[in-house]
Amino acid sequence: MTARRLRTSAALFFLGLFGVLETTTISCMNEEGEAVDWFVFYKFPRNQEKENGATGLEYLYLDSTSRSWRRNKQLMNATKSILGKTLQQLYEAYAFKSNNTAYLLYNDGVPKSVNYSRKYGHTKGLLLWNRVQGFWLIHSVPHFPPIPEEGYDYPLSGRRYGQTGICITFHYNQYKAIDSQLLIYNPNVYSCSIPATFHRELVHMPQLCTGSSSSEIPGQQLAMFQSVQGQKFLHFAKSDTFHDDIFAAWIAQQLKTHLLAETWQKKRQKLPSNCSLPYHVYNVKAIKISGKSYLSSRDHAKWCISLKGAPNRWTCIGDLNRSPFQAFRSGGFICTQNMHIFQAFQRLILYYENCNQT
């Protein structure tokens, strides 16, 4: 083969590689490295007694290929954990610097910072997508994830308390609605790359990326989403002008179901159970994970499910606590009627607070 033919073959090879990378299927991933439609995770609180070598990095997860919780094979700070596998796509996208791949990271507790800005929503998440599809990871972990330049790690601050999250794989045609929901979130974006090829369809995320958004923000907005494999989700987003508890004032009444809500029960920063409206919200007081029980004061997770026996069994995962202070913060929850997710979370509840309890 002549030198000219070798150069031509090499050029065609790299052109083909470029084309493959440009159309890579971005997806939520499980621990086996398989693309999944969605997953939820529950990271254990660290035992105060540090029994049995617990590190605060163990977790349960459930994905679209399973029917119940699975115990982790990898610790959460490992690149082979469920979050490590999923976020590896972010680091590959950052290294490749494709004009057809975008990402946006937001957290009110920025990595390597001890400060929390009340200027922004009490929101934590990550989006990665191309013009085919992508994923949205919503979680409760402060200071996570690191910026793409630094690769995967799990923060020390995320180990002490329980944490939850949900990852959903979406076709690109869902991102216009996600774009509108994020405007209401007013997220603290600390790392992003949204090439110009997306700016025609996505208006708000590029502005949030540069900190130049001047759009009028609604007080609240409800959106319906559908995952790549057809799982339906309902997303609640409220701005800081919606001055009320999102659980009692909106989610329970919209879904027409009594709710059991598990959020961080920090001393002097919690709301009592609420039975003043047609659909009630009861605070979960303790959970049980893998045989260990934990009070909600040890749990930084943020989720709710329909009360047992109630119609319309829902599970919602998000980023706001039931707190008088967070009634004035923006944030939201994404909800599904998937029965396996509902049953998985239902089995974790040890007991909850009735409205007549003090």
UniProtKB/TrEMBL annotation:
It is found in: Lysosome. GO terms for biological process: apoptotic DNA fragmentation. GO terms for cellular component: lysosome. The keyword Nuclease applies. Its EC number is 3.1.22.1. The gene is DNASE2B. It comes from Chrysochloris asiatica. Belongs to the DNase II family. It holds the Pfam family DNase_II. GO terms for molecular function: deoxyribonuclease II activity. The lineage of its organism: Eukaryota, Metazoa, Chordata, Craniata, Vertebrata. Keywords: Endonuclease, Glycoprotein, Hydrolase, Lysosome, Nuclease, Signal. It catalyses: Endonucleolytic cleavage to nucleoside 3'-phosphates and 3'-phosphooligonucleotide end-products. It comes from the Eukaryota. It is an enzyme of class 3 (hydrolase). This is Deoxyribonuclease-2-beta. Residues 1-23 form the signal peptide. Hydrolyzes DNA under acidic conditions. Does not require divalent cations for activity. Participates in the degradation of nuclear DNA during lens cell differentiation. InterPro entries: DNase_II (IPR004947).
